[in-house]
Amino acid sequence: EAFMIIDNIKNIYNYKSFSIIYKALQELSKLNIENIPTSTIVYEENKLFYNPVSLISKPEYECIFEAHKKYLDIHYILEGIEGISTSSIDKLKVQTPYNNEKDIAFYNGEADGTYYLNPGDFMICWPTDAHKVAIMKNSPSQIKKIVCKISVDYL
Fold it and tell me: What pTM, to 2 d.p., does this model score?
């Protein structure tokens, strides 16, 4: 099973004992669709940074699992509804081997589940959680989100 976390930003006090995740969520809670950054925000070089992402969701069959080794991801939705499927990487077949420079590998296989995130929702994906992003709910739509990256060395 994949052990990602799905929650809403209003519940960040639940994460106080995870200091770096709590810090990241506090920073995310300051962002909204009006003040969405236009480029990467670096809080601590190679340890904690945010990437703004704008995409159009698409059918699940057009999406592919990805996973990282150096960073965990927090996907924080600001606009639209994004479906994200998850699976444990050891259940999947490698499609594109891990690229150390880009910190990413791509996989094929079955999802453990698909979750639809609304504005204010976030999903934390650990390095063992493959995730398939940009899945549409009913039809393609605009999604704006922040992907926060936290170095696993920092946890």
Answer: 0.96
Cβ neighbours of residue 13 closer than 8 Å, sequence gap 6 or more: none
CA terminus-to-terminus distance, the chain: 21
Q: What's the DSSP call for residue 38?
A: S
Task: Give the bridge partners for 113, in sequence order.
Answer: 86
CA dihedral 87, 13, 146, 43 (to 10 degrees): -110
Per-state percent for the chain, helix, strand, coil, to nearest 5:
15, 50, 35
Model pLDDT for residues 78-99, shown as the tens digit of each residue: 999 999 999 999 999 999 999 9
Burial grade of 120 (CB within 10 A; 0-12, 13-18, 19 or more): middle
Count of beta carbons in the 10 Å neighbourhood of residue 56: 11
Distance CA 65, CA 93 (A): 10
Could you list the beta-strand ranges (E) of 63-138: 65-67, 71-79, 82-88, 93-99, 104-108, 113-117, 121-125, 129-135
